[in-house]
Amino acid sequence: PRPRHSIDRQRAMREVTESIAEALPKAAAVFAARGLDGTRMEDIVEATGVPRPTLYYHFSSKEEILAWLLQRLLRDLSIEIGGIVDRDEPARDRLRQVIAAYLQLFADHTQLCTVLLTELGRITRIPQLADAIWAAFHEPLGKVLDAGERDGSMQASDHEMTASAIFGAVTMVGLHHVVVGQPVDPPAMAARLDHLILRGLAPTPRRPPCCLW
User: Fold this and answer.
1) Interatomic CA distance for residues 16 and 58, integer angstroms
2) pTM for this one?
3) How many CA atoms lie within 13 A of 200 on its CB side?
4) pLDDT tens, 17-42?
């Protein structure tokens, strides 16, 4: 099992009230437009309407606010993907559904995904987010891969490496569409990625010519 980060390494944030939780997503547009370095707490106050003292009561920095927004997104993704993993369906079908659920994030949360692109290196070094990504995607995907080995629809593999490769592929495809402004079509894109992941780039074998006699 993957080692978990100790919560003692990070200052525990105070529980966010429902009213603040509803207002904070408005900060995503600010982070997307200005980047993390260019965003000031004053900008977040203006965008969300949450007073500066209240923000500092719950968060020590703008980095913590961004981390909270992304953790919340990943929490919702974890719940949805967990439901997919528990379905009584072939592993191959569940794999495609997991990919589609992740791609749906890029369709529904374009601004936060833009921040993810510009701040990817910094974000993935935040321990809480690294653990949240593991719980939301890598861990449940490992269960699907294991199920695929058991039902014969997938070959045996290093689950951690395979899950990381799939996560990277889906992430970059989703971010590419966000960057170029193309609409994200999760079912269609998931079907193409699923085909690529399961069959690779090998050409389809040609059928032998029919016997003429």
Assistant:
1) 7
2) 0.81
3) 4
4) 899 999 999 999 999 899 888 999 99
